[in-house]
Design goal:
four-stranded antiparallel beta sheet, 2 domains, alpha+beta, binds iron/sulfur cluster, single chain, Alpha-Beta Plaits
């Protein structure tokens, strides 16, 4: 099982070595996709985590116990369907294929489970339909 999560830290837990512990104690494979760590301030990591489902659930419970909020990217990255004009500009820049053109309809679709929250789509979108919020 492989999923992408956004981990939210606060001034009390931003310096905890949770990535190391996820790897060592829960046998998970952790790939850091994005990191903003600000001493004594709200910080976040975007992680791709893979491993056995039970161990992943235990790892998530460990994070919760440490006061680290782990959310799927779906909660942080949204497309405003009301203003997207399906121009396709975002599909050329999206590195994970989360934004893609479905053929033959040529509709631009968004698959949040593939999104790495890189934010590249935000500035290329003419009507600013993509929102990345942490
Ligand atoms: S760039 Fe914006 S408007 Fe164009 S398809 Fe992507 S999300 Fe929709
Ligand atoms: S933030 Fe945008 S460009 Fe980056 S992976 Fe997600 S959908 Fe693609």
């Amino acid at each position: 099982m492989k999923r992408i999560y956004v981990l939210h830290f606060d001034q009390n837990n931003y310096d905890k070595p949770v990535v190391y512990q996820l790897i060592r104690n829960f046998d998970l494979v952790v790939n850091i996709l994005r990191a903003v760590i600000l001493p004594r301030k709200e910080s976040y990591l975007v992680l791709e985590i893979s491993g056995e489902e039970e161990l992943l659930e235990r790892g998530l419970a460990f994070l919760k116990n440490e006061g680290v909020k782990a959310e799927t990217v779906r909660k942080s990255v949204r497309r405003n369907e009301d203003i997207c004009i399906s121009c396709g500009a975002c599909t050329a820049i999206c590195p994970t294929g989360a934004l893609y053109i479905e053929r033959p309809s040529m509709e631009v679709l968004f698959a949040p489970e593939k999104c790495s929250a890189c934010g590249l789509c935000v500035n290329v979108c003419p009507p600013r339909a993509m929102e990345v919020n942490f």
